[in-house]
């Protein structure tokens, strides 16, 4: 897990959860591009595990958790908003800094990171780790089910998705429409860029299936320790790239940006449903025999469309595509 990854303790014991090791975790998270909020989330999860272990009498000693173990979060950074123009400028800022191949691949990495930020936004706040589990197998295709009849209202693709953050909980899935443009196009572009960087390496097998519209990666990072480590390394490279071309807007902010715009177009209830945050999330999976649920689905889709339009997602996707084409014309295409 994260504790082992950052501390290098292969088989940690509960006695290893102490001030010194937590400081190692905190420093490692920040050094690798993570935020204070990320560290604090790790800490909350770790505390919950320890409390459960004591409750079930797996351990009997008290733990030292206190405020000093937390990382200080920048409040002004947390509430800072973002506009389409900021993303536009970030794409424009991507430059090949030399004629060396490494400089070209670095430019691909920066465009890929921006593309993922935008894809997270277009998919209503997916987490990065979610994308290692996304492929065409989760498309809602069963035309005989009630949820298909309600959620699949047009020719656009709809996926049935459980967020990585809540996959182990008894929670309702999200039904997310994948528009042909820009969302599906972003999946294609990111996979292309990822393939360019890794096709001629020993990690060629990490590239998603070519004929799968949604498969960026070929693995599920939760099922194999080696894949999880690789996925974490790729994530760190994206975070470093984002800090370079999109300062103060880590990928986690894509979710917040989507929610912020949605709040201006709909009720708090629907805005929560859009990103999977709602005490009323059972609305997502009830048997939709009651026509009263149809207006909710319609409002979710209409708001999703309004948010993408206000953020100029189509235009940003086109600009990103143009930049990738420009870079590809100079070579570095997988053979």
Give structural notes:
52% of the residues lie in helices and 3% in strands. The chain contains 13 helices and 2 strands, in the order αααααααββαααααα. It has a two-stranded antiparallel sheet. Helix 6 packs parallel to helix 10. The chain is globular and about 55 Å long. About 5% of the residues have low confidence.
How do the helices and strands line up, and which of them pair or pack?
Layout: H1 2-7, H2 19-31, H3 36-55, H4 75-78, H5 84-93, H6 101-122, H7 146-151, E1 157-161, E2 174-178, H8 180-198, H9 225-245, H10 253-263, H11 268-275, H12 294-310, H13 313-328
Antiparallel strand pairs: 1-2
The share of residues in extended strands comes to under 5%
Oligomer state equals single chain
Strand order of the largest sheet: 1-2
Residue-averaged pLDDT, rounded?
84
| SS elements, strand count | 2
Name the shape in a single word.
Answer: globular
The biggest sheet amounts to: 2 strands, antiparallel
Structure described in brief:
It contains 13 helices and 2 strands, in the order H-H-H-H-H-H-H-E-E-H-H-H-H-H-H.
Note the main attributes of this structure.
52% helix, two-stranded antiparallel ribbon, globular, mainly alpha, 335 residues
